[in-house]
Amino acid sequence: MPKQTSLPSEASLRTLYKSFLSSPSPLSSESTELSTLFFKICEKSLESDALCKEGAGVLREVLGKWDPESEDPNPPPGVLFNTSTPHNVALNLLTDTLWLLSTLHPDPSSLPHIRLLTLLKTLTPSTIPYRTICTVLDETILESLIDDYSRFKKSLKKVNTDRVYKQKKFNLYREESEGYSKTLTLFSTLNKSNVEYTLRKTKSIIGYFDLDPNRVLDLCLDSFENEVVSSNYSSYISVLKGFESLKALPHLIGFKLADSGGGGEKCLDIVGRLVKEGMVELEEVRSYMEVDLEGIKAESNRRLQKYSLSIKQLGVVSLNSSTTSKKNITSPEIPDKSYLRLKLISSLVKCNAYKVAEREIEDLEARGIQAIFLEPSIASGICQLLHNVLEPLYQSSSPPKFDLGASPTPLPTSSISYHPINSLQMITTLSEFTSTILTPLKYITLKSDSLSKDPILFCKICRIIKYGLENNPSEEEFEKMKEILGRYLTPCISCLGSNPSCSYTLWSCLNLLPYQTRYTIYDNWRGSTLERNSIPMKAMAGKGIGEDDKGLEWVRSEVITGLECRAVMKRLSKDNYKEKGKLLAKITHPNPLVVFSVILGQIESYDNMITLIVDSFKHLSPLALDVLSHQLLTAVGGGNTNTGSRNKLKDDGLNASNWMSALETFIGVFYKKNPHVELRGILRFIVEKLRDNSVLELGIVKSLMNKMGGVEIAEGVISQQQLDGRAGGSLLKRETTNFGIVEKISKKSVKQLRLALSEPDVGLPLLVLTAQIRNRVVYMTETKHLKFIGNMYDVCTRMENVLAEFLSVDKERYEQMVPSLSRLVGTTKDGLGLDPEVVFTIARPLIGGSVRRDEENAQKKSSGEKTTPNELKAWLPGKKEIHTTYKAMLPSDVWSSISVSLYETFWSLRLYDIYVPKDRYDAETTRLKKEVERVEKSWRSDKLKNFTQSSQMDVARMKNTTGELKKELEEQQGWFRSVTRKIKKNRDSFLGQLGAEEVSKTFSKTFLEHCVFPRCMNSPEDASFCAKFIFLLHDSETPHFPSIQVYDLLVQSLIGLIFCSTEGEAANLGGMLREVWTVLSKWRYDEKAYEEEAQSKKGFTITGIGLPKGDFDKVYGKWHDRIWTVCKNGLKSTEYIHIRATLIVLSGIVNTFPKKFEAGQEGLEAVSVLQADERQDIKAMANAYYAQLSRARDAGAWRKEDGGVWKDMALEKAKKLKEKLRGEKAKRQDEEMRVEMSGGGGGGGQGQKSAKPPPPPPAGGNKSAQKAPPKAPQKAPQKAPQKASASNNNNVGGGGGGGQKFNPPPSGRRGESTLRGMKSPLNASAGEFKPPGGGSRLSPPSGREAGGLNDSRDGRDGGKKRGRGDDAGSNVDAKRSRGDGRGEGGVGGVGGEGGEEDKRKRYFDSKT
Fold this sequence. Notes:
- Residues 895-1189 form the THO complex subunitTHOC2 C-terminal domain.
- Residues 1220-1408 are annotated as: Disordered.
- This protein is mostly helical.
- It contains 65 helices and 6 strands.
- Strands 1-2 form a two-stranded antiparallel sheet. Strands 3-4 form a two-stranded antiparallel sheet. It has a two-stranded antiparallel sheet with strand order 5-6.
- α17 (340-350) packs parallel to α20, α56 (1109-1131) packs antiparallel against α57 and α58 (1157-1170) runs antiparallel to α59 (1176-1194).
- The termini are far apart.
């Protein structure tokens, strides 16, 4: 036995093997060394069994275990060895070595051969695969290695036969028609129940007929095309998933798409299904698509440009269209294959592979291709997809359905499956909704108009959002729902057309949002511009469309709406506003922003259309009205639909621009008609503008208070009748504000305005800022016009008073809104620092309310009734805390000159508390009774045939008001007695503690400086209150009250007051001076009144003796001279404001001052100079005051030194002559009328026209008036009256159809006496006709009425003309300037109250 030698070391083999694995080429020198080493190991292993075992172990340790995955299952033809990796090369080298040893030891019975077989069995197949062994070794070796060698030999023969003798096939159906037929039949019967059977049978057919699996897979896809849209498509998906290998699937689909010339719709649907299921990657299929992306981009831009130009040309009429060559925007159409990718996206959406489709859409848009614009089916597919995924959430959030019997057949729904990764999942919660819906909504709203074509889906989404908003959403959910509403749903309604249901559904969501959020949504809806101006410039230039640009369908809808709106507005009139209003509401549904931009533009130019347009808004939807409130806010802010910010002042810098004035009026009228529309936005805007020191916007508040709140805001000088009305209760104030013409006030609008103003962030800031800016406007206004600054100051003062009065009606709500008195004054850290007159304007209603409730509780307590808690107890006067606040309002040294009790009493009382206008109550009660009698009499005489229900309601209102006025008078009289009792009770505490000497030194100055002057400038009521309060203290004989000293200091301070006051303050000052001077003049010229009212009182006592009448006359004369000196200097001043203020003050006291005729003559001369002034407003005021002063002179207002009435003898003579001529003329007309009436008898006779009498002599004091009347012309001699012609229908008297016709009188007042006489009752004693207003109609008027007589038609025209002459330039508003014959200051009318009654009669008749 030969000696055994050891094997090569395992370490050397491992080292060499590692070096071989790292070599770059498998055929390098390392392979030779490795083959040599393999041979040595195997050869040594054959020497003994131990070495054989050891050698096998070494090889297994070094080479490792064979990995079947590394073997290529389908090697290329002719390749016998796997050389894909160095390891496989090493195995091939080892196999070759074993084959070489088998050839060296061919004898099967030899030990080396047996040991070789043992080595092979040890290495196969754990280290060397069978395929390598079978390929290399001989059959003798393989026979010993393979268990079933006979089967292997048969297979080997078959393979060799197939390789050598079998005919090559080309995978055609005809090559194996039976197998493919059976497969096709099998697929045609496929359903969900036999998927497993079909899959198993298919594999059997493939094996039996030796079919190509890829061809079978292609056949399965062909069958799948016919079932792709049915519910059976899932069965095919399951079968396809059963194939062992689907690597050929994308290639088969790619070939189908390429062979179909652009791909059929069903084939694309298959692709979508497979991509959704993850069986095919979209990138693999896309490689077979011949898509020209640049061509698609060019086509997209071309279509956008063409569509943009078509929108721009809407409504444009070309007069030379035949000769104008339009720009030809064409490009070669791209083939359908280029749209294959777009169609594929549509199929992906259709089968709910949405997330894959979304990535494709974003990729195309990043390349500048508007995929959804080019392929609308993508957006429509998204809509259908959203219908399905939203259904679970919609069913849970929608209102319960009522059982109405058999339900209709449900709409068919497409079969959509859901993939966990590539599909949109069913939405069941609100959080899923808000996180999923945003991107799909962008595609169907901003990128297309598909949602607008699906109103059902639109309403579904709106209802889901409404459900979410009503159920306390989280902050994140709320923000996303707000984005959905603002960015997608609200703009979408522009393309929905006139669809009221969608508009109301959207409003049900928006109404749940704060108005600030809604206005932000409307801003986003509007964008930067509207209509044609919003067409994207990039689209017009053929460069695509921007991300933030409006959609073209959206713009097109705006343009069409604008054209329709302008067509309606051109034809709107008072005759068709109802019909056009319905059409306007229809147009407004899709684009309210466009409609209201057009309307507001017309209103700003034509303010006479405001009422008409507001009336036509009756049928507008709530959404449209809310949008209008936003548009109004934008407009008053200076913005417009076509321009930027605008100047709110005219070029003169004094008055508000016309557009601003028109908007103010429109806002008032609109909110009066529609009080439910959002108002807080405009009010908050005004508050913010006040913070920016802008006062012009207060005109909006004024319009709202006037129109919506029914508050009449007087400007300038008001009449004594109106002032008396303001001193009474609410009913009297209403009846006297507009001279008895009571406007219909909507209680709903008043309540809504009061609620809006009572908001914490509106009411109090508006009050406080108005008061604060009043002082700042003098220094912070940029304009140099003093008149404008003064007007703004007056506006702030008036609005502050009106707001406080309006809000204080609801005491509880007002008390919650108003802070404490100390905070108003500014004694706390967060104090507001308001002036005393402002503080008490705000606090006075609460102080009065607390006092009244305290007294009511005292009365209830005394009578044993149950008392109610006083919620206003904190404002009750006399409390220590309040007195401390009062003392902090003024410097400490002031309180040594005035008591807290007097200060509190003065500032806490109102004019209502200390003055009862009984005469005004009686006058209004009498007027209402006469009006009721007149209307009822006319009704009974059948003169008002159309006595409508509205007329009956007016009569009932007047009767009810008559009774209510009586109750109101009794209530005020009782309250007046209570207040005066308190004053008399507390009068000793006013000045008793100060001492007479201290009072005489400083009281008058302190009282006027800190009480009278601040308050009298605040309002007409406060001015009247100051005058009456001074007289009340004087009349109640308040201890130490120096009445004569107070009046004297008041007159001395007049010069400073006039020359530093605004126009409104001058009017208030004139009102107070009128009251004061009326009392002083009464004492001057009525000795008995002086003795009773002045001399006997303590205030006129000097050293214990009353001031003698002669001394008072001297003091009166000095006061008169001083006042006139101040006024005369003001009229001659070179300062514009001084002249206006002086004229306003003089106009207010024209009937009481001047009293001296010398001063009056000087006044006429001074004013006559101003009548030629170049400044038109000064000229108008001078003309008005000149007429008023002349009328006062003629009425006997001027006095002589001895106290007698001064009269102009020449004027009196002319007046008497004029009255005489007028009386003769009246008698002549009366005689003619009697003759005509007495001559009309006989049945069936026809009258004849009588000759005209001679014309009357001219009136006046000239010479021609003294001549005899001229004779009548010869052509028309005066004859006896004859029968009238048959054509005349104005017959009087006589039976049958006859009678005499009335002839017109010869005067310019044609037919006055005749027609008026027939309407008036005949005075039996005097034989004269009297008008219903009282007084002889034929007797000449006297006093100032005669001076202003221009016409005699019951004071209608005459009242108007004289009213203008009296009040022009005094800033009295138009309703007062007409005159009513009742007021002082020259408000004219014939017959006293006659003009006013006729005015009311015309008003009532116009309503019936």
